[in-house]
Protein: Endoglucanase
Amino acid sequence: MAAPNFNLRNVVLLVVMGWWGQGACGHEHDYVDALSKAILFFEGQRSGFLPEEQRLKWRAHSGLGDGWSYNVDLTGGYYDAGDNVKFGFPMAFTTTMLSWSVVEFGEMMPPQELTNARVAIRWATDYLLKTISQPNHIFIQVGDPISDHNCWERPEDMDTSRAVYAVDAPNPASDVAGETAAALAASSMVFRSSDPGYSETLLRNAVKAFELADTYRGAYSDNAHVKSAVCPYYCDFDGYQDELLWGAAWLRRATQDDNFLNYIQSNGKTLGAEDNINEFGWDNKHAGLNVLVSKEVLEGNVYSLESYKASAESFLCTLIPETSSSHIQYSPGGLIYRPGGSNLQHATSITFLQLVYANYLSRTSQAINCGNVYVTAHSLRQHAKKQVDYILGDNPMGLSYMVGYGNSYPQRIHHRGSSLPSIKDHPQLIACKEGSIYFNSTAPNPNLLVGAVVGGPGQDDLYLDDRADFTKSEPTTYINAPFVGVLAYFSANPNP
Structure:
């Protein structure tokens, strides 16, 4: 079913009439179905040799020669969004968030979805292990983004440059290496019981990646050899320091080694742990770092990390409209809004942090003092639920922003593989510029990228389902990854 073609006049009329989509009638959502689809999405982003059990059958093998120019195997991993480049920085963050989703909420997932989530994580970690397989060296990207973005072609047809970008010590890549350390440490916890040997491999390599990040400090995008390839797409805009603390925090969580605890304690101020505490995403880890580290403080184990807890709670207070410190922006329909593109990455990641902290509060029977009010775990979960329900269809457009969920969802997403005929239906090559006819078409995408959460509406709650408007219509792995954990919670607790 095609999404409705709303315009501003339609929306104004609907508001005047008091009709606000499915949310007006308190629509009950199938969170288990949404969770299943959110995980399935990652199969549509796969690069490499696809297994027989691949469920999205319109995808096929791609990028099978990745790494050959460096005489190394760099096949596998994920395309980050609607293009065909493998960017290491957001892929590592995606992996961390998928792993954190399982660490915090995996026991709430239906058993089959927990298995599927582990498969999704391993598709990434197998690749990340390859990126640090050589001493004092990290591969940070495969694919030239300029030539890739000049084409509109299926990943299976790629004839653009599959250039390999790497950073060798003493040149720094603290951000990518630090995030890779976090991803491998977090994922080691995911596989600890199901595959102990693999878990040990992940943890050993996490330590190696962290040592590379910490020994040669600096941002990877400051390196002239890779800057033109990673910027402006995934430049390190907010500094590398947060990734060092983030990597150390995950290694502390995975190992309980006091050396990493000491690192977080002693480097907090010098690495700016109290900077930009209201941000969380692929570039800025501060809010997530503070929430993660707060667990030990709330449990009464480590009081020396109290400043991290204070920062976490200061951030969470800003999200609650009833508090005196509230300053986050919401759309008229109630969606968390941050300036810039791909807004739902903020909504899903912030909602994830609310639910994680709510878990920590529940287990320790505590609440947050937000000055004029106390915010409880229940309150955090209620606010989180509003965001989830908005994304799934309780919004002014009456539109689910997850492809394939509900009766009305985006049909023209900014995604090459989804918008072009599959090679099963059209086995002939569709060359670089030949795909333009599909890009410019107003027809719905022929292949359903089930579970993809798009960038989402603007601050006015409007979404026009326009393939060319990539800031709104492009899905990304780092929008979906935290949403997996969020949906896992609500699949088990639909009415918190």
In short: Strands lie at 86-87, 137-142, 164-168, 329-330, 336-337, 368-369, 374-375. The first strand starts at residue 86 and ends at 87. Confidence is low (pLDDT under 50) at residues 1-25. The domain at 24-492 is CATH 1.50.10.10 (Glycosyltransferase).
